[in-house]
From TrEMBL:
It comes from Meridianimarinicoccus marinus. It comes from the Bacteria. PANTHER family: PTHR33376, SIALIC ACID-BINDING PERIPLASMIC PROTEIN SIAP. It holds the Pfam family DctP. This is Sialic acid TRAP transporter substrate-binding protein SiaP. Its main location: periplasm. Keywords: Periplasm, Signal, Transport. CDD domains: PBP2_TRAP_Siap (cd13672).
Length: 325
């Protein structure tokens, strides 16, 4: 009898200890993205992982997987819903598939500059659109990251829209990215980010478009002789944490959200600052950097921005965004 009681007590104690250990168990989160290890995005993600670990006394371990190692952009977006990944960097244009209006900031010539972008980031409009995405998916938008002004690279100067007619240009595999090349008569070719360098080198495509920091760290200038400063999209990334991850984190979810917002602000300023010096750097490498008149390019796109049959946002969103300038 005594032995039976002792066994019962031991079993209850073991269950209690096991439950306590489970409650305090470290949570491991996978942060996936498509950018190189040397990029500012990856470095800031590593910083954020360290900060979260420190501020939660080690309860949360964020492991960062760069360079499409857990999948290309479409795949990591899908991975949020199935638990394959917990946190991602992704473009609003990819999120458009799940909640269209949040892609508004990535439409051509819709943002006037970095100050306009920062005002939008801190606005009620962005907060509402983030909630709309959460309502559609369950996932949390933790921050908006400045990705830079997108410019066209090629092997000859592009100075006016007619120079892009028939141009086979790689674009990300997202609907918003088709608008600009279609407006100027180019031939947009969706392709994964990891495949672009080889496609340019082998002349599978004739051109691509990305911000200057991306052109630098992906070394596209090695296989393209001209950078044409079209500035056609002021591009962003979102930091998103999956619904299942946020639920698992409990009270620590607020810490993760806070650190992600700090990380977003940090890398955004770093990217903006690097843009300011890169034109000179590219010219030092022997690349022809072409200043252009953006007016004709803007005029080609303008009618599409307010054609509600072609965009995923509504006129109220458009007017509120323009009012933030």
């Amino acid at each position: 009898m005594v032995q039976s009681k002792l066994a019962t007590i031991a079993l209850v104690a073991a269950i209690a200890v096991g439950g306590a250990t489970s409650a305090l168990a470290q949570q491991t989160l996978k942060w996936a993205h498509v950018y190189e290890e040397g990029s500012g995005y990856h470095q800031v993600a590593l910083w954020a992982a360290e900060e979260v670990a420190e501020r939660t006394d080690g309860r949360i371990d964020i492991q960062v997987f760069p360079a499409s190692s857990l999948g290309k952009e479409v795949e990591i977006n899908e991975g949020l819903g199935i638990g394959a990944v917990d946190i991602i960097y992704t473009g609003p244009s990819f999120v458009e598939r799940y909640y269209g209006p949040i892609a508004i900031s990535d439409y051509p010539f819709i943002m006037s500059g970095y100050d306009h972008w920062k005002t939008y980031r801190d606005s009620d409009l962005f907060a509402e659109l983030s909630e709309g995405y959460k309502g559609a998916t369950g996932h949390t938008v933790n921050g908006l990251v400045y990705y830079g002004q997108r410019h066209v690279t090629s092997n000859f100067p592009i100075l006016q829209p007619s120079d892009m007619e028939g141009l086979k240009i790689r674009v990300p595999n997202s609907p918003v990215m088709l608008m600009f090349p279609n407006a100027v008569g180019a031939n947009p070719t969706p392709m994964a980010f990891s495949e672009v360098y080889l496609a340019l080198q082998q002349k599978v495509v004739d051109a691509q478009e990305n911000p200057l920091p991306t052109i630098q760290f992906k070394k596209f200038y090695e296989v393209q002789s001209n950078i044409n400063l079209t500035g056609h999209i002021l591009n962003s990334l979102l930091i998103i944490t999956s619904q299942s991850a946020m639920q698992r984190l409990g009270d620590d979810a607020a810490v993760v959200d806070e650190v992600m917002k700090e990380a977003a602000a940090m890398v955004s300023q770093e990217i903006f600052d690097s843009e300011q010096s890169l034109v000179a750097w590219f010219r030092e490498q022997g690349i022809q950097v072409n200043e252009i008149d953006k007016g004709p390019f803007q005029e080609a796109v303008k009618p599409m921005l307010t054609d509600m049959t072609q965009v995923p946002y509504d006129m109220d969103h458009f007017e509120r965004l323009q009012a933030l300038q």
